[in-house]
UniProtKB/TrEMBL annotation:
One of its GO terms (biological process) is DNA-templated transcription. It holds the Pfam family HTH_1. The keyword Transcription regulation applies. The keyword Transcription regulation applies. Residues 10-67 form the HTH lysR-type domain. SUPFAM superfamilies: Periplasmic binding protein-like II, Winged helix' DNA-binding domain. Belongs to the LysR transcriptional regulatory family. One of its GO terms (molecular function) is sequence-specific DNA binding. It comes from Silicimonas algicola. This is LysR family glycine cleavage system transcriptional activator. Keywords: DNA-binding, Transcription, Transcription regulation.
Length: 295
């Protein structure tokens, strides 16, 4: 790592004040965010402008606006302070016993929540904040330790990825719906009306069926349980409902599968992270056992 010429750099206090002003487009809002006075922010920004010999901000009716030079500097301070904040957060958590884990809603309900109690009984001091979402997350920039995700294609070619399990796709319906439907082509199917969903259904001889879009994944599952339509997806998602008899498998073959994996942040692993990953792999191995799958 090359040395920095600290003497050539402006005051970090001035850069912090400018960064806050640029983020909020206002000296007043920046002052509130840093718990200082409006005059203190203005003084620091003016000192920074004098140091650089450039105008960075101009007054505007609603606050301030950045000049071209100000925008370039704001991009740099935002990226720089953002990376510092992320690195500090990771450093603090690498020596602590707290983790941030992002998962999908379905896999949280189906695999993680039923078993997490045992993990906490064994490791009561480890705090885990789960963030279920279908959104693609950059775990490095957003400060997550682990992302549990699935793919219907090959596992990602990423050294951070740990394979967890493979689950076949199945088609299901509530018993009440299964009892009255003889032709599944004429039934309503729940899901998203996308080219990918249409392709999967067409492979199963269901090209052109009606797809009802319910919305959130949790609502789609509840609609299936209530007999609003048939559904398909990873077997692990429907396993608990199959065991309870809330849904039954229907005679539609789906030739796809979900491959589940954990994506782990780069860098050294804390004790808490290592213990959680060991538990996660073991839990998914148990869930993936053939004799655990209802018929």
């Amino acid at each position: 790592m090359s040395d920095l010429d600290w003497k050539s750099l402006p005051s970090l206090s001035a850069l912090r004040a400018f960064d806050a002003a640029a983020r909020h487009d206002s000296f007043s809002a920046a002052a509130r965010s840093l718990n200082v006075t409006h005059a203190a922010i203005a003084q620091q920004v003016r000192a920074l402008e004098k140091d650089l010999g450039l105008a960075l901000v101009v007054r505007a009716p609603s606050g301030i606006e950045l000049t071209e030079a100000g925008r370039r500097l704001a991009d740099a301070t935002s990226a720089g302070f953002g990376r510092i904040a992320t690195a500090v957060d990771l450093a603090r958590r690498s020596t602590g016993d707290s983790l941030r884990v992002t998962t999908t809603t379905f896999i949280t309900d189906a695999v993680i929540l039923p078993a997490i109690g045992e993990f906490w009984r064994q490791h009561p001091g480890i705090e885990i904040a789960f963030a279920p979402t279908a959104r693609v997350i950059d775990i490095e920039s957003e400060g997550f330790d682990v992302a549990v995700r699935s793919t219907t294609g090959p596992m990602p070619d990423d050294p951070r990825a740990i394979p967890l399990m493979v689950s076949p796709f199945i088609a299901v319906a509530a018993p009440s719906l299964a009892a009255r439907v003889t032709d599944w082509y004429s039934a309503d199917w729940l899901g998203l009306d996308t080219p990918w969903e249409r392709e999967v259904l067409a492979e199963s001889g269901l090209s052109g069926v009606r797809i009802r879009e319910i919305g959130a994944p949790g609502l789609e599952l509840q609609a299936t349980l209530r007999g609003i339509g048939a559904a398909y997806g990873s077997e692990i998602v429907y396993r608990d409902a199959l065991r309870k008899g809330s849904v039954v498998r229907i005679p539609v073959e789906i030739s796809r599968q979900s491959s589940y994996y954990a994506l782990v942040r780069s860098g050294s692993r804390s004790r808490a992270l290592s213990l959680f990953l060991d538990w996660l792999v073991s839990t998914f191995e148990e869930a993936g056992r053939t004799d655990a799958i209802p018929t």
